[in-house]
Specification:
Blueprint (H helix, E strand, L loop, with lengths): L4 E4 L3 H12 L4 E4 L4 H5 L6 E2 L1 H9 L4 H6 L1 E3 L1 E6 L2 E6 H5 L3 E3 L2 H15 L2 E3 L3 E6 L7 E6 L2 E6 L2 E4 L17 E16 L9 E5 L2 E9 L2 E8 L10 H11 L2 H6 L5 E15 L2 E2 L2 E3 L5 E2 L7 H22 L3 H4 L1 H23 L7 H16 L1 H12 L4
Parallel strand pairs: 1-2, 1-12, 2-8, 5-14, 12-19
Antiparallel strand pairs: 3-7, 4-7, 5-6, 9-10, 10-11, 13-16, 13-17, 14-15, 15-16, 17-20, 18-19
Bound molecules: 8-demethyl-8-dimethylamino-flavin-adenine-dinucleotide and P-hydroxybenzoic acid.
The site of 8-demethyl-8-dimethylamino-flavin-adenine-dinucleotide (RFL) has 33 residues, from helix 1 and helix 9.
Length: 389
């Protein structure tokens, strides 16, 4: 079998790229290791930048997002018992929207199915071959049967644990990594959110985040120890910990209930350079990871997709490879800024095991400066709503 672009990974980046290309008549096959149900059971990002919203519109899947997403004009930041707001709309005239990654992916699956474009779920042993030649191909197994797809290009959209990045010879890659000494425990509960806006809280016992999915579905996170297991965290322990880390007035307003999902994610900053090797292009978590504190993971995956989509269009429509040749450079320039912002948000909002009294004062001064300086708030707002593509 032959196609123009093989997309490895049917997460949000692979599906968005596939849909954008399909609308321009460029043929793709998506190979996804898991089932559709499994991918849609993963609860991840919630905040979308306008760039991603616009791309969803361009991919023809913007209607439900437009109707059901929630506009967030700002955010709240708490430090111990004090809380202040940052209004992105007033500061820079832009906002973000809240629409879960699960819904983004569901809309893209539905659109691909409607278009009749090919997606192979439960594709096993996906291997990339001759990606640095003019004739790359991908092999995999489906229902025990070996299959091969020849193609022009391979898009590696298979996440941090995927096969694509590892197909680039180690001598070609440079990896940058920072592993944080804590994780996030997240729960989903069918309770009304404690506030209309998100609350990022730095308390003496650690970080907490109040987020949501809709008026009756809340998403909350607390900083936890690296060795913690979900089984260590009863719902009661979670709610007590969360309430304790929020300013009193917020904690008192918190409505608790049974969790319907509970998971732990380690926090990591990671970048692998370059993002292109021959005819293989990496997108999203396959090439980089950010700690979720800045809500940048999914949004940075989307900007990669934008650059790769533009490069492929230029190649197929104008026979010009300039966009593809510059893909890695353009994507990485934006990736590193998202890495910096996510690292900064993480460093000012969490408690670190080895923090000295001096470090704590630095954190307090950063937060006081952010509270008091409109210039500092404008910088934060520009990064949070998303830097231009
Ligand atoms: P994904 O979503 O990981 O999708 C990759 C897909 O590739 C498949 N796959 C393979 N398919 C074929 N062959 C193989 N060998 C394969 N190996 C893997 C996988 O099954 C999967 O379906 O990457 P993508 O598309 O780049 O999207 C990136 C986003 O998912 C990610 O940046 C964010 O979700 C990060 N992230 C969060 N970001 C936020 O902004 N806010 C959050 O609250 C947030 N929480 C999270 C997160 C990431 C997590 N991970 C990766 C464990 C919580 C977690 C737990
Ligand atoms: C979420 O709603 O899951 C969420 C929101 C903001 C973040 C991280 C996660 O920074």
């Amino acid at each position: 079998m032959r196609t123009q672009v093989v997309i490895v990974g049917g997460g949000p980046s692979g599906m968005l790229l596939g849909q954008l290309l399909h609308r321009k008549g460029i043929d793709t096959v998506v190979l996804e290791r898991r089932t559709r149900e499994h991918v849609l059971s993963r609860i991840r990002a919630g905040i979308l930048e306008q760039g991603l919203v616009a791309l969803m519109g361009e991919a023809g899947v913007g209607d439900r997002l437009k109707a059901e997403s929630y506009l967030h004009e700002g955010t709240l930041i708490a430090h111990n018992d004090q809380m202040f707001g940052i209004n992105f709309q007033n500061l820079i005239g832009q906002s973000v929207v809240l629409y879960g990654q699960t819904e983004v992916t569901r809309d893209l699956y539905d659109a691909r199915e409607k278009a009749g474009a090919e997606i192979v779920f439960e594709a096993e042993d996906v291997s990339l071959h001759d990606a640095d030649s003019d004739a790359p191909f991908v092999t995999y197994r489906k229902d025990g049967e070996a299959r091969r797809i020849d193609c022009d290009f391979i898009a590696g959209c298979d996440g941090f644990h995927g096969v694509s990045r590892r197909s680039i010879p180690a001598a070609v890659r440079t990896e940058y990594e920072k592993v944080y000494p804590f994780g996030w425990l997240g729960i989903l509960s069918e309770t009304p959110p404690v506030n209309d806006e998100l609350i990022y809280a730095n308390s003496k016992d650690g970080f907490a985040l109040c987020s949501m999915r809709n008026a009756s579905l809340s998403r909350y996170y607390v900083q936890c120890s690296l060795g913690d297991d979900v089984g260590d965290w009863s719902d009661t322990r979670f709610w007590d910990t969360l309430r304790h880390r929020l300013p009193d007035e917020v904690g008192e307003a918190l409505v608790t209930g049974p969790s319907i999902e509970k998971s732990i994610a380690p926090l990591r900053s990671f970048v692998s350079e370059p993002m292109r090797w021959g005819r293989l292009f990496l997108c999203g978590d396959a090439a980089h990871i950010v700690p979720p504190t800045g809500a940048k993971g999914l949004n940075t995956a989307a900007s990669d997709v934008h650059y790769l989509y533009q490069g492929l269009l230029q190649f197929y429509q104008e026979k010009d490879s300039e966009g593809l040749d510059r893909y890695s450079e353009k994507a990485l320039a934006r990736v590193w800024k998202a890495e910096r912002f996510s690292w900064w948000m993480t460093s000012i909002l969490h408690r670190f095991p080895d923090q000295s009294p001096f470090d704590l004062r630095m954190q307090a001064a950063e937060l006081a400066f952010l509270r008091d300086s409109e210039d500092a708030q404008r910088v934060m707002a520009a990064n949070y709503v998303g830097l231009p593509y």
